[in-house]
Fold:
Amino acid sequence: MKKIIFFSLIILVGTVAKSQTLYTQEPGRITQNEATMTVYDKDPDAEAVVLYEIGNTYFLGNDNTGDFDMYMEKRIKIKVLKQAGIEYAEFEIPYYLDGYNSEKIENLKAVTYNYEDEKLSKTELDQKNVFEEKIDDHWRRKKFAMPDVKEGSIVEVSYTIVSPYLFNIREWKFQKKIPVIYSRFSLRAIPYYEYTYIMEGARKFDEYTHGVVPNSETRWRNLKYQLYQYNMGMKDIPAFKDEEFITSENDYMISLNFQLSKIHYPQGGSKEIMSTWPALCNDFLKEDSFGKYINTATKEAKKILPSLDLAGKTPEDQIKIITDYVKSNYSWNGDVTKFAEGKVSDLLKQKRGNSAELNLFLTGMLSAANIKVQPVLLSTREHGMVSLSHPFQQFLNYVIVQANTGEKNVLIDATEPMLLYNELPERCLNVKGLVVEKNSEQWIDIVQDELALTEKEFDLKFNDELTVLNAEIKYNAYSYDAYHYRATYSGESKNLYDFFVRKSVEPKGDIDVENYTELDKPFVISFKTESAYEKADKLFIAPFLNQSQTDNLFKQTKRTLPVDLIHRHAAKYKSTIHIPEGYKVDYLPKEIKHDGRVMIINYSAIENPEKRQIEVTADYQFKNYMYEAKDYQALKVSFDQMIKTFNDMIVLSKI
Structure:
């Protein structure tokens, strides 16, 4: 369940403002309209609406550290319009810690308002119901659900994050999955820190003001300075609804990202912080948790390589052997990161590490075998795309490996043992990656042109009494389809049984699999099933037992964003139907041969009178993995045609 991550400050007043004001941003004040509204007129289907969200970021001197801390205040007020909107009254506040330095969450206040019988009641959040949760070694979050929330409730939340880390101001999201009536971010800057920001999803603000704050002369220690304020606001922001087939909502939702670009020293002079991609690559290679980790891994690898029998092997075979060794001997702990957390010796001892530790170790192993190899930084799909014109380190959150076979470069990831050595996890397939080499800026495409394909074969035969349709089913899965089936199986037939039951087919007897560990071969699943029938003058048969696609993947009435399928998809079906004695073919669906702009669709049902069989074959294939928004309707119509045809019944009638 997606939770709202930004919150805000509240001082609650148990009265309703009976005035002409529809909405108010005054803490603790509720207007008559806010209290009584049941529908948001600009989005009648909205489950909830953000009445306002306001953020204020400023800096204060810390006498204990002798440096500045960043204060990030947030206030938010949400109206719950429908039962389904109650989920937006659940909150998460992430914060960062590193050793002895930690961000702090202060002044957390939260109130639920309910307007019933012409009276406004309020229920304050009990701090005992605020829970702490570990995300990873550096991130924690506070979680809570607002009390006494129901349809019609208003929730108002505020808090302040105090941070010693001045490098990144928190991202500000103007847009959410519910409509936002008003959102404003303000930065009260001091003259010592200069920030650069990127606006995503929109070209301009509805409100933008900036200037010196009147009467803001400030003294701290031996410093004397004035404050400069930026105000950026937006109104009537629609809910973000294009959630299917995109890399990350962060790529398209209206938001602000910041990075420290320059430090101005009080005693004079300045330091450029805003980097270039070549300089950023150099920094990574100097990092203990990146470049130096690779160097240490290379030294350790020389002790391991003699046991891998690489002599006489081609470079590609050596890459495959070394990758398989790392995947087989070291497991991924699930953490997605670009930096190693521990030492190489920790990985060797524990046989377990985060994504960077495994892939940087693999880089060192390949380097020790004299394979040309480089780490490649990227942003995972969930993290969002990288702006190539803005060298922000926070845009990159993952590292993979590029190795050269002598004839070509292959991209490798060591976290998923059920993927072929040169197949990347789907989370990595996100447009571009930065090859990390000294004084270099080289971007490469992070795509996989493999066709994710499943072939499904059915042999259907009635029993003599015509009360049971017996079926023998065989799946042959390739590439990413094979990975998903292998991951589902995970060595346990019960997992496949449960999977097929959810697909409305109950296997009878054993489920046989082939090539579970032979990743260069298709993963094969075979089993039998049966369906109950009533003997009748007409028999209606689904040739693929409803195991072809039954729901249209493309459900939106309007599409404004590109369609990203991650990789190309295809499926093939073949069904042999044995015609029982005393019956003849009454109806066969028409043949289809469709080679359109977005999809290929074929269907054929042919009777073989001599064998008393019907042979049904069908297939579909997407021509690309990425489509423009204008192609959405063509995809929707083509997919709908495919569903109707592939699930059309074959009819046998009594002679």
Notes: Confidence is low (pLDDT under 50) at residues 1-15.
